[in-house]
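User: I'll paste a sequence; please echo it back and then give the predicted structure.

Assistant: Echoing your sequence first, then the prediction.
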Amino acid sequence: MRKVGVVHSSQEISPSPRRWGVFPVHEVSFTQFLTSQYRTAAEHLGFSPSEVETLITELSVSLSPWGDHPIGSCPEVPSFVSADGFPAEMSLSWRSHRPELRVLFESFGEDATPAGCQAAGRELTDRLADRDGVDLHRYRLVEDLFASEDPRVNRPTIWHSLAWRPGEATRYKAYFNPQARSTDPAAVLDTTTEAVERLGLGRSWSSVRATMPEMADRGNEIEFVALDLVGSERARVKVYFRITGRSWEDLDSVASLAAGHDPARAERVWRSLYNGQDKAEGEEPMVCLAFRAGAPQPEEANLYLRLTGNTASDEEAAERTAGLMRQEGLDPQAYLDVVEALAPEPLAATTGLQDLLAYRTTAPGAPADVGTYFRFSVYDQPVEP
């Protein structure tokens, strides 16, 4: 009989992959760390030195002044962006076989309070008005719906992101939280509806609102609203839904509201990532519906599928993502190079660096858009809900 605690093997058992405190960067500033990660990714994607320097400057200015503060050993104001309270994430996507590099972040205020974060976010929006290509008209139409007189921890009000593709100007986006004032589903729906109608998209939103009773029964929740900060007619309004039931059927019921969603292709991706299971583990997956002026319904659905909790390590997450990219006709080598370069340890030793895989179909037969979201676990434990 095998004795308890005795391992009959010539090799030691490897410890479980580590998720928390993977990046020991407490002494450096937010800007130093994030620009270093951004530079690493941009260089491994083959961006030119001049492009990289321009991007680093734009990101540094966007993170100012709070980005100069040291990261510290625990978050002063836990951010909802990451499970450990770190206020930023980086993502990489391929659309039409071209890479796009993005950073999403919540601004911090001079005082370490949710109100300070909200004020800093609004102030950054004002500063963005001077950036080439930025248009704040639509933002001004709805900002008052989401700003709160009493912001709370874990109920962020305003976030931002910047995205860049070779040969294009940097694009900015603002994110709002319709739960900032109330988490009551009826109030959240009313706030979202008012925002979408002010933005002139009431007709296409009505096709979604009609399904909200069914969504509520399934446990699908409105999470965020986002705006492209550009004046183009192709500018999007995006509404994000959290799929609390974690099942393929629940996720597809939201995604199928979009004209470009291909259920058969998306289901193959789901079952490939989740080993044929109907239900995902860990944190909830999400769906983002994208609305544009003149369309009778949402045009696109982006699926955000959790890798953390559904893969044993970042190594396995990278393998599954690379396999999906090959299925979609994408060469995964640049992606794999970026993952290896960003990882502070061997990929088999960590989990959570690659938190989400994004998948979006736009037209029958066209390659899907594929993306991955990087979370930088700098703190030693998750934030208490």
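The first strand starts at residue 88 and ends at 95. DSSP finds eleven helices and ten strands in the chain.
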